[in-house]
Amino acid sequence: MSNNNTAIVEISQTASKFSSSIVLQAENKYIDVKSILGLFTTLVSNQSYELHVHGPDADEAKQAMIDVFNKHGLNVSVVAE
């Protein structure tokens, strides 16, 4: 699971670069992606996730998050609001 830990730290660090709100939806749970603890309890590699991104730099944040999720082989889709 150590590579999952790397993914969690990198996802959280990437999210923290943006002022937008970035929320990960996994089934019926919503997690602030900037919260490492929230990610630790939620991120399971064989699950698919939805990202909800709102804010002034949302477009850049969405692309950065997609890149970091894909890099770690995690299945994510960004929800268009």
For the report, how would you describe the main beta sheet? 4 strands, mixed
CATH H-level name... which superfamily? HPr-like
**Approximate helicity band:** 40-55%
Q: Helix tally?
A: 3
Q: What is the CATH class?
A: Alpha Beta
User: How would you state the average pLDDT, rounded?
Assistant: 88
Structural class comes to alpha+beta
Report the β-strand fraction as a percent range. Answer: 25-35%
Multimeric state? single chain
* β-strand number: 4
Cα shape: globular
Structural summary, described in words:
This protein has 81 residues and is an alpha+beta fold. The protein has a single domain (2-78), classed as Histidine-containing Protein, Chain: A (2-Layer Sandwich), CATH 3.30.1340.10. It has three helices and four strands; from the N terminus they run αββαβαβ. The chain has helices spanning 2-16, 36-42, 58-71; strands at 21-26, 29-32, 48-54, 75-78. It has a four-stranded mixed sheet, with helices on one face. α3 links the parallel β3 and β4. The protein starts with a helix and ends with a strand. Pfam families: PTS-HPr.
